[in-house]
UniProtKB/TrEMBL annotation:
Similarity field: Belongs to the UbiH/COQ6 family.
Cofactor(s) needed: FAD
Chain ranges of the FAD-binding domain: 5-330
Domain of life: Bacteria
Gene Ontology BP, a term: ubiquinone biosynthetic process
Sorted UniProt keywords: FAD, Flavoprotein, Monooxygenase, Oxidoreductase
Name of this protein: NAD(P)-binding protein
The species this protein was found in: Zoogloea dura
């Protein structure tokens, strides 16, 4: 039977990043992807990357290949009430608070770097089941073949037969309608996070345009998707306000928003990373950044431990190291959604007071900014 030290299931940005972080570890690594090779390059999404994520991508040698738009200012407000906060990169001596990149561009840069390592990627290799034993994991593929690995890293989605014990889910009853809009004037590398009773509206600088994440109830999202471009543009402008005018808007896509996570990201000879470990609401743009911190910590734990990558004590050490940041980020994003997605008058006034305090009190503002840049422990 084909045997490996590490089998990474999923060759998207998370799986490829783990392979690159371990390329010099002396491990026999294989990536398994259900899609055709290079499919991740066609990903239409836009990602908000933190400053900490930039540092990791620089270590991996891929940052210079990315066409990234810096976010130098973040404007936070809520609809129907007073109060707003501004976060500025120059307060922290950084060139930017974060960056916006096309997910397809990130995947292409990682794929090119991975190709130079010689680590094999098996495409059209859909995993149908995992069976963990004392010494290895038996990985079953949809074509009826099998292989084994001392450690299986699940980096994308759900896998039949994997351990879903204790999985926590919350449906927010919201869908995200995403698009790229052209502003009437330059965006000035500013991002806007506007909270509304229907859900947050994010406007992110992306090249010369703006990436829009427009949250709405499922029925309202259906209606928004059915509008022609001019009518939707008017609806978007009315919803966002007059801080930035939009001249046009491109095609739209939508996807449901939910919280789904594993309290324990490890099992017998198995580790879950990225969306396989947690799927977060896109508010504050924390999903991929948390995933990358997980990947980097996992790689460093395996490198320090040496020997058997799937050893129980090694995986337990990784889980302990990531507990604070994972739980803190999950609660941070979930709390923002639950606090701001309501029109109740007392909460509206409380939110306004909170935004005023955030703007006027440097320690509170620094806490939020550093969490967004580095995670719960101001990583790295």
């Amino acid at each position: 039977m084909e045997r490996h030290d590490l089998a990474i299931i999923g060759a998207g940005p998370v799986g490829m990043t783990l392979a690159l972080a371990l390329k010099d570890a002396g491990l026999d690594i294989v990536l398994l992807d259900a899609r055709p090779r290079g499919a991740a390059r066609q990903d239409p999404r836009v990602l908000a990357l933190s400053h900490g994520t930039r540092l990791t991508l620089e270590r991996l040698g891929v940052w210079s290949r990315l066409p990234a738009t810096p976010i130098k200012t973040i404007h936070v407000s809520h609809q129907g009430g007073l109060g707003r906060a501004l976060l500025r990169a120059d307060e922290y001596g950084q060139p930017a608070l974060g960056y916006v990149v096309a997910a397809g561009d990130l995947a292409a840069a990682l794929d090119d770097a991975l190709g130079a390592t010689g680590i094999p990627v098996r495409d059209n290799a859909s995993v149908s089941g995992l069976a963990a034993g004392a010494e290895d994991v038996l990985i079953s593929l949809a074509d009826g073949s099998h292989l084994s690995a001392r450690l299986a890293a699940c980096a994308e989605g759900a896998i039949q037969g994997s351990d879903d014990t204790g999985l926590i889910e919350r449906d927010y009853g919201q869908h995200a309608v995403i698009s790229i809009a052209t502003p009437a004037a330059a965006h000035g590398q500013r991002a806007w996070e506007r909270f509304t009773p229907q859900g947050p509206l994010a406007v992110l600088p992306c090249g010369s345009g703006c990436a829009i994440v427009h949250t709405a109830a499922p029925d309202d999202a259906d209606a928004l998707m059915a509008l022609d471009d001019d009518t939707y543009l008017a609806r978007l402008q009315a919803h966002f306000g007059s801080r930035l005018r939009f001249a046009s808007v491109g095609s739209r896509a939508r996807y449901p928003l939910l919280l789904r996570y594993r309290p324990n990201p490890v099992g017998q000879r198995t580790v879950w990373l990225g969306n396989a470990a947690q799927t977060l609401h896109p508010v504050a743009g924390q999903g991929y950044n948390l995933a990358l911190r997980d990947v980097w910590a996992c790689a460093q734990t395996l490198l320090r431990a040496g020997g058997d990558p799937g050893a129980a004590d090694t995986l337990a050490a990784y889980a302990r190291a990531r507990q604070l940041d994972r739980q803190g980020t999950i609660r941070f994003t979930d709390g923002l959604v639950r606090l701001f997605s309501t029109a109740a008058a007392p909460l509206k006034h409380l939110r306004g007071a909170g935004l005023f305090a955030l703007d006027l009190l440097p320690p509170a503002r620094h806490f939020v900014a550093k969490r967004m840049m580095f995670g719960a422990r101001a990583w790295p």
